[in-house]
Amino acid sequence: xxxxxxxxxxxxxxxxxxxxxxxxxxxxxxxxxxxxxxxxxxxxxxxxxxxxxxxxxxxxxxxxxxxxxxxxxxxxxxxxxxxxxxxxxxxxxxx
Length: 95
Description:
Elements: E1 5-11, E2 21-25, H1 32-43, E3 59-63, E4 66-67, E5 84-89
Parallel strand pairs: 1-5
Antiparallel strand pairs: 1-2, 3-4, 3-5
């Protein structure tokens, strides 16, 4: 039986499970893509495409201080106990 993973989450989104702090992930959430889909379901927001291969342009995801797009597995990167995750909606401006 798989053990749940505990991560530290920082985000500027607000959702049911937690906004920021320690979060124990359900066993079905194993990758950063899974986590983004779960949070997206809770707040009715699309972070990634259905295949979990592309992140929205206005979203930044950092795992342990490194942008998720720099990981070889990208959104398929496996989350491990103690990971520090930052999910941020980047303001887009003009004018």
